[in-house]
Write a structure and sequence with these properties.
Number of strands: 6
Radius of gyration: 18 Å
Number of helices: 3
Order of helices and strands: HEHEEHEEE
Structural class: alpha+beta
Oligomer: single chain
Distance between the termini: 69 Å
Shape: elongated
Helix content: 25-40%
Strand content: 15-25%
């Protein structure tokens, strides 16, 4: 009986450590579409994240290609599951939105022309520059 209880405890621990982090990362398809549409059309020199996010959020961090999950966890300061395998990608940037409730949303930037920020993007500082292609 003790062996069965131990086995169940180990299975629950596996579920918590492997499956649960994946549940806290959602694809914000609306942000994804509006970001890539504005970057594709180059209709503006800036992108205002606050105009395209309809939930409460704390911060946005943009990860360039080839960043691994360990780097992302360190940068975010908390457990995070990379939903698009950025360590193997050179075709996109990953835009991670940290929500007020501690979960994450993400969008991808396939045009890779968002200007790098010295500070992270917050609701008070939510406009980022767009580099024009040559």
């Amino acid at each position: 009986m003790l062996l069965v209880i131990s086995l169940i405890a180990v299975l629950i621990l596996i579920v918590i450590l492997i499956i649960m982090p994946r549940m806290y990362v959602s694809h914000d398809k609306t942000l994804d579409a509006s970001l890539n549409e504005q970057l594709q059309t180059a209709s503006s020199d800036t992108f205002d994240f606050g105009d395209h996010i309809d939930y409460e959020w704390k911060e946005i961090i943009i990860f360039p290609p080839y960043k691994d999950e360990t780097y992302m966890k360190e940068k975010l300061g908390m457990r995070f599951h990379d939903p698009v395998d950025m360590s193997l990608r050179d075709d996109i940037e990953l835009v991670v939105v940290i929500k007020d409730n501690g979960t994450f949303a993400y969008a991808t930037n396939q045009y890779r022309n968002l200007q790098q920020q010295e500070s992270n993007i917050t609701p008070e500082n939510d406009v980022i520059g767009i580099s024009k292609p040559y």
